[in-house]
Write a structure and sequence with these properties.
This is DUF2264 domain-containing protein. One of its GO terms (molecular function) is hydrolase activity. InterPro entries: 6-hairpin_glycosidase_sf, 6hp_glycosidase-like_sf, DUF2264_N, Glyco_hydro_88, UCP014753. Keywords: Hydrolase. By secondary structure, the chain is an all-alpha fold. It folds into 2 domains: 341 residues, Glycosyltransferase (Alpha/alpha barrel); 372 residues, Glycosyltransferase. The strands form 2 sheets. Strands 1-2 form a two-stranded antiparallel sheet. It has a two-stranded antiparallel sheet with strand order 3-4. Helix 11 runs antiparallel to helix 12, helix 16 packs parallel to helix 18 and helix 18 packs across helix 21. The longest helix has 22 residues. The radius of gyration is 27 Å and the shape is globular. The chain starts with a helix and ends in a 21-residue tail after the last helix.
Length: 762
C-alpha cells in the first residue's frame, strides 16, 4: 500500500532521497507523462517550440536519450524550419500563423532547439534555415521585430545561440538594437517591467482597478529570456552591463509582486483583475530567479524565500496527481477577467516552463553535493595548500622539498620557487575568483585566497625570505608571465585587494623584465602577457613588444589549431602550455585596455578563439576511453597542462559544437583520476614530484624542477564555473573516443581553416 501511495503522489516526502533526487524524479515523471500522451509530430509554432526549450533542458540535466530523440523527431517533422515560405519578398513579421510569417518571432523560437541539437551533433542542415532567416532579417533596416513581450523569449536566445555557433557579431549588434526598440514600445522604465505590447501601455490601458496591467506570462517570457541570453553572452560584450542591470532590476520588480501563496496573478499589480493562480508566468519567474541565484546575479538570501514559495505552489498546487501541470492560462495575450484557469488547465508551453524551473532548481540543490567537483576541489587544494600555507608565512623556500632534473643545467635552483607560485596561481585563479560562501569548498577557497594574497605580497617584498628571484636569469620572464596571467584570470579577487605598495612593486618588477631579450619562440608571449597586463592596469605598456609578438605568432600558425614554436614546427604540447591561452589572454587584455594601434584586436581575438576551439576539439579527441592521452614531446612532466586549452575553452563557455560541457567534465575527470590515483605524484612534504604519472625522473628536461610541474593546475580552470553550472550538473556524457570505440554515433571531423582575415586599421 505504501508503494502505491509513493507512486501516485508528486509531493515526494520520503526520507531516504535527497531533495535533488526527488526533483529529478519529478522532472522525469512530468516529461514522460507529457511525451506519452503527445506525439512529437506537431507544428513548429511557438507553443510547441517553447515546450521543447524545456525538454532540451531536461535532456541536458538527465541525459535521457528519449528526450533528445523526441525533440529531434519534432525538428525533422518540421524540416528544421519555422514558417516554410522561401519567397523572401513575402516574408512578414507581424502576427500570423501562415507560412509567409517567416520573420514573426513565434516561428523563430524553434531555432533555439535546432541550435541545441546542432551543438550535440553538428550537421549543417540543422541550422541552415535558422541562419538563412536570421541573417536575412538582420540585413534589413527594420528594428521593430520584437513588438510584443513574448517575442523576447522567442528570439533573443536564438540570437545568442547563433552567435556562439557562428561568432558573427551582427547577432549581438542586432540583439541590442532590437531590444532597445522593444523598450521604446512596451517597457515601463519606472517599474522595470514590460507591457505585453503597445496596446496595454498605461495610462492608455488600465487594469480593472485603474492600475498598470503587467501580464504575468508576458513578463515571465522576458525574465526567462534575459537569463538565457546572459548564459550565452560573451565576456567583454560592450552591452553586457545593459542586460545584466535589466535582469537584476526586473527580478527585483517581479519579486515584489508575488502573492502570499507563492504564485503571481495574471495581472501582476492588480490581483482582483483576474484573481487566482497562474502557472506559466510563475514557472518562468522561478526559472529566471533560480538562474540568477545560481550564477551570482541575485542575492540568495533575498530571492530564495521568493523561489521557495513559488516552488511550493508549483509542486503542491499546480502539479497534479497524473503529473500534468495545471493552472496554465490558455493561449492569449492578456489577463482576462472571468477566464477560468483551474487544475485541468494545462498546455505544452506551461510544461516547458515547469521543466526549466525544475531543472534550475536541481542545479541549486546539487550545488554543495557534487562528488566530481569535490574530487577536483580536493585535488586542487592538495596541490595548493603546501605551497601557499608556507609562502604566506615566508617559509616556502625554507620548507619546500625541492627536486631538480638529473641533468639539471646548473642554473640557480631558486628559480623553482617562482615557477611553483606563478604556475600554481595561474591554474587556481579562476576558482579563487568565485564569491565567498559557507560551504566546505567555500572554506577551502577562502583559506587559499587569504594565503595567496599574503604570498603575492611576499613574492615582491625584498625583506621577505620568500622574495622571488626576479633578477639574474632569463627564466624570471617565463614565470612572471604566469603571475601576470593569474591577475588577468582573477583581476578583482587577486589584484585589486593588494595594497598599493605591493602593486607598485609588481609594476616595477614586471617592467624590469624588459631587460630580457626573449628568443623568437613561445617566449615572446611571456613578454606580451606581462605588457598586456600593464596595459590593463594603465601602468604604461610597451606596445611594440605586444604587437610584434602578435605578428610573430601569426607567422608561426601552421593550421588546424597548431602553432609552431618559432620558425620550426615541433610536435609537442606548447600550443597547450603557452600559445593558445597566453595569446588569447594577451589580446583580450590589450583590447580591454582601450589602447588603439594599427591592430584590429577584436578580429585577432575572434580568430585566436576559433583556433583555440579547434585545438580544444583535438585535445578532447586525444582522450582515450581509458582516460589517457598521447604522451609525446618535451615538457611532458607538466602532466595535465597538456589539456589546458580544452579546460580554458570550457571555462570561457566557448566549447565548439559537438563537444559538450558534460563530456569534457567526464573526460578530464577520467584523466585526473588515472594520473593521480597512485599518490606517487606527491612527495612526503605534499609537493609535486617530477614525473608524468607518478615519480618518473627520467622524462625530465634540463630545465625541469618540481616547481615547473605546478603547470598541471592549468587543467583546473573549469573550477571557475560555479558549482551550479551545467559543466558540473549536466548528466554524464561519453566523450568522443568512448563513443567512437563503443560503436556509438559521434560527430564527423571536417577540414578546418581560418575564416577571419585581418588588416591594419591604418
Amino acid at each position: 500500500m505504501l508503494y502505491i501511495l509513493i507512486a501516485v503522489l508528486p509531493s515526494f516526502s520520503f526520507a531516504k532521497k535527497t531533495d535533488a533526487q526527488q526533483v529529478r524524479e519529478m522532472i522525469e515523471q512530468v516529461n514522460d507523462a507529457w511525451q506519452k500522451n503527445h506525439a512529437p509530430e506537431a507544428r513548429s509554432f511557438w507553443d510547441y517550440a517553447a515546450y521543447h526549450t524545456g525538454n532540451m533542458e531536461a535532456y541536458f540535466l538527465t541525459g535521457k536519450e528519449e528526450y533528445r530523440k523526441y525533440s529531434e523527431a519534432w525538428a525533422e517533422y518540421n524540416q528544421w524550419m519555422g514558417a516554410k515560405s522561401n519567397n523572401k519578398s513575402e516574408w512578414k513579421y507581424k502576427y500570423g500563423v501562415k507560412d509567409d510569417y517567416v520573420l514573426f518571432g513565434d516561428y523563430q523560437v524553434c531555432f533555439q532547439t535546432y541550435a541545441d541539437l546542432y551543438n550535440i551533433m553538428p550537421e549543417n542542415y540543422k541550422i541552415k534555415r535558422a541562419r538563412e532567416v536570421m541573417e536575412y532579417q538582420m540585413s534589413t533596416p527594420r528594428k521593430d521585430y520584437w513588438w510584443w513581450s513574448d517575442g523576447l523569449y522567442m528570439v533573443m536566445p536564438v540570437m545568442t545561440k547563433m552567435y556562439k555557433i557562428t561568432h558573427n557579431h551582427r547577432y549581438l549588434k542586432k540583439l541590442y538594437e532590437y531590444l532597445c526598440t522593444s523598450d521604446s514600445i512596451m517597457y515601463d522604465e519606472e517599474e522595470g517591467l514590460y507591457y505585453r505590447d503597445a496596446k496595454y501601455v498605461y495610462p492608455k490601458h488600465k487594469s480593472l482597478n485603474g492600475k498598470k496591467d503587467f501580464w504575468a506570462r508576458g513578463d515571465g517570457w522576458v525574465l526567462a529570456a534575459l537569463a538565457k541570453v546572459l548564459k550565452d553572452l560573451p565576456e567583454g560584450y560592450e552591452h553586457l552591463s545593459f542586460f545584466e542591470d535589466k535582469f537584476v532590476r526586473m527580478a527585483k520588480a517581479v519579486a515584489c509582486l508575488q502573492q502570499p501563496e507563492g504564485y503571481w496573478t495574471r495581472s501582476m499589480m492588480d490581483p482582483e483583475h483576474a484573481p487566482g493562480p497562474e502557472t506559466s508566468g510563475t514557472a518562468f519567474f522561478t526559472y529566471g530567479m533560480l538562474w540568477g541565484i545560481n550564477n551570482g546575479y541575485l542575492d540568495k538570501d533575498e530571492f530564495m524565500p521568493v523561489v521557495e514559495k513559488a516552488w511550493k505552489y508549483l509542486t503542491k498546487t499546480a502539479l497534479q496527481k497524473d503529473w500534468s501541470v495545471g493552472y496554465v492560462q490558455p493561449i492569449g495575450e492578456k489577463a482576462i477577467p472571468g477566464q477560468v484557469v483551474d487544475a485541468k488547465s494545462t498546455a505544452n508551453f506551461g510544461v516547458g516552463a515547469f521543466l526549466l524551473a525544475a531543472c534550475e532548481y536541481v542545479r541549486y540543490l546539487e550545488t554543495n553535493n557534487n562528488e566530481t567537483r569535490k574530487y577536483w576541489t580536493d585535488m586542487a587544494y592538495r596541490m595548493a595548500a603546501p605551497v601557499l600555507s608556507n609562502m604566506a608565512k615566508g617559509e616556502l623556500q625554507k620548507n619546500m622539498i625541492l627536486e631538480v632534473s638529473p641533468n639539471w643545467d646548473n642554473r640557480n635552483k631558486k628559480v623553482a620557487y617562482m615557477e611553483t607560485f606563478g604556475r600554481l596561481m595561474a591554474g587556481i585563479a579562476p576558482w579563487l575568483s568565485l564569491p565567498d560562501d559557507d560551504t566546505a569548498e567555500g572554506q577551502q577557497r577562502k583559506q587559499l585566497k587569504e594565503w595567496a594574497l599574503k604570498s603575492y605580497a611576499n613574492a615582491v617584498d625584498p625583506n621577505s625570505p620568500d622574495y622571488l628571484l626576479w633578477n639574474g636569469h632569463g627564466q624570471a620572464l617565463v614565470d612572471a608571465a604566469y603571475i601576470a596571467e593569474s591577475f588577468l584570470r582573477a583581476f578583482d579577487q587577486l589584484w585589486k585587494p593588494l595594497d598599493q605598495t605591493t602593486k607598485e612593486r609588481y609594476i616595477k618588477e614586471f617592467k624590469g623584465l624588459r631587460r630580457i631579450d626573449p628568443p623568437y619562440t613561445n617566449w615572446l608571449l611571456f613578454s606580451a602577457t606581462i605588457e598586456s597586463f600593464l596595459a590593463k592596469i594603465d601602468a604604461g605598456q610597451d606596445t611594440y613588444r605586444i604587437n610584434s609578438t602578435f605578428r610573430k605568432v601569426e607567422e608561426w600558425y601552421v593550421g588546424d589549431g597548431w602553432y609552431a614554436d618559432g620558425q620550426h614546427f615541433a610536435f609537442d604540447y606548447y600550443s597547450s602550455y603557452v600559445f593558445h591561452p597566453m595569446y588569447l589572454e594577451s589580446i583580450h587584455a590589450i583590447m580591454e585596455s582601450g589602447v588603439r594601434t594599427r591592430f584590429d584586436y577584436r578580429k585577432y581575438y575572434d580568430r585566436a578563439l576559433m583556433r583555440a576551439q579547434r585545438f580544444a576539439m583535438i585535445l578532447e579527441r586525444f582522450i582515450s576511453p581509458e582516460g589517457t592521452f598521447p604522451v609525446f614531446g618535451r615538457s611532458i612532466p607538466y602532466r595535465m597542462a597538456t589539456i589546458q586549452p580544452l579546460a580554458l575553452i570550457a571555462w570561457y563557455n566557448e566549447l565548439p559544437a559537438g563537444v559538450s560541457k558534460a563530456q569534457v567534465r567526464c573526460a578530464l575527470t577520467a584523466c585526473m583520476k588515472r594520473m593521480f590515483k597512485s599518490g606517487n605524484n606527491f612527495n612526503e612534504g605534499g609537493f609535486l614530484t617530477i614525473g608524468f604519472c607518478g615519480h618518473q625522473t627520467g622524462i625530465s628536461n634540463h630545465y625541469t624542477n618540481n616547481g615547473s610541474l605546478y603547470m598541471t593546475t592549468l587543467a583546473f580552470l573549469p573550477l571557475g564555473l560555479p558549482a551550479s553550472d551545467p559543466f558540473w550538473t549536466d548528466a554524464d556524457q561519453p566523450w568522443t573516443s568512448v563513443k567512437a570505440w563503443g560503436e556509438m554515433e559521434f560527430p564527423i571531423d571536417h577540414r578546418w581553416g581560418d575564416t577571419i582575415r585581418t588588416w591594419d586599421l591604418y
